[in-house]
Amino acid sequence: MVTPFTDEGLLDLEGAQRLAEHLVAEGCEGLVLSGTTGESPTTTDDEKSALVRAVADAVGGRAAIVAGVGTADTRHTAELARAAEKAGADGLLVVTPYYSRPPQDAVEEHFRTVADSCGLPIALYDIPGRTGTRIEPETMLRLAEHPRIVAVKDCAYDLLGTQKVLARTDLAYYAGCDEYVLALYALGGAGCVSTVANAVPRRFRSMLDAFDAGDTAGAARIQRELTGLIEAMMASGLPGAVTVKAVLTARGLPSGPVRAPLRPAGREAADGLLAVYGELVARDAGG
After folding, report:
1. Is 193 annotated as ligand-binding?
2. Are 244 and 37 in contact (CB under 8 A)?
3. How far apart are CA 196 and CA 207, in angstroms?
């Protein structure tokens, strides 16, 4: 979920509650707060806790609230984990420490330390394209032995490595790359942590429901139909937070501006994105 801000750039907690209500009503079973799309690098620790409390007040009990707490600092991450637990989160999303590029034994120790710091279940966030460091499959296998490390948000673009871990652990794998949602689900994944679903949550819900009902052809059709919007939102050279907020603003849903160093989409980029979005919505309306 994006983090809504006011026009002045302040945290918009009422808007966050309205957006959370909308996403849950449209089929989202859980909401990840303060993730990449939630602009976590530019929100304060207090803002992160306030966001969890507000969204938990709005939809807690109807959707799982997962708080992104990952930083480049093990001690800070553990502090954020405890704060999220106190604020009412149901689980944590913990990204690999970034920039310092720790070796695998240090990566493993980082996650174990965070998991030991609180009582919440943890999803590991494997996104080497952003962090510079992979959680290698062998490291995943060892981490899966920890009782509170239960899931993975998979943005590693290594389907073979993912299958190796799926075959040997009970970790719940969530596709973090929208073009891989159905492929990973078909292999036994648990679902997705999606950026594009901010814009079309019902579409992703319908795709997974179709697959569960045995309509694999229908599920594949939905994934293919999403291709244009996924490309426009995730492969246009603009960050997902920027493209999502452009769509939500056009729909009159809470979003507000992005925080620097991000900048809003330019007119040409926004018009092209909204044209693709409009075509998909029109196709849905046409049956």
Report:
1. yes
2. yes
3. 13
How many residues are there in the chain?
Answer: 287
pLDDT tens for each residue of 17-59? 999 999 999 999 999 999 999 999 999 999 999 999 999 999 9
Q: How confident is the model at residue 267 (pLDDT cuts 50, 70, 90)?
A: very high
d(CA 186, CA 260): 38
Catalytic residue (one of 48, 153, 174, 277)? 153
User: Which tokens go with 152?
Assistant: 């993975």
Judged on CB neighbours under 10 Å (0-12, 13-18, 19+), 46 is exposed
SS3 label, residue 155: coil
Q: Structure tokens of 197?
A: 């679903």
153 catalytic per annotation = yes
Preceding peptide of 261 cis, ω within 30°:
yes
Confidence of residue 287 (pLDDT cuts 50, 70, 90): low
Mean pLDDT of 68-89: 98
Residue 96 is given by DSSP the state: P
In tens, the pLDDT along 126-153 reads 999 999 999 999 999 999 999 999 999 9
CA-to-CA distance for 15 and 19, rounded, in angstroms?
6
Residues 6 or more apart whose CB falls under 8 angstroms from that of 235 comprise none
Beta-carbon count within 10 A of 97 CB: 21
Q: What does the alpha-carbon distance between residue 269 and residue 267 come to, in Å, rounded to a whole number? A: 6
H or E stretch at 114:
helix 104-116
Residue 286: which residues within 8 A CB-CB, separation 6 or more? none
157 is known as an active-site residue: no
Catalytic option among 48, 98, 125, 180 = 125
Give, for 68, the enclosing helix (H) or strand (E): strand 64-68
pTM for the full predicted model: 0.96
pLDDT at 283 over 90: no
CB 111 within 8 A of CB 122: yes
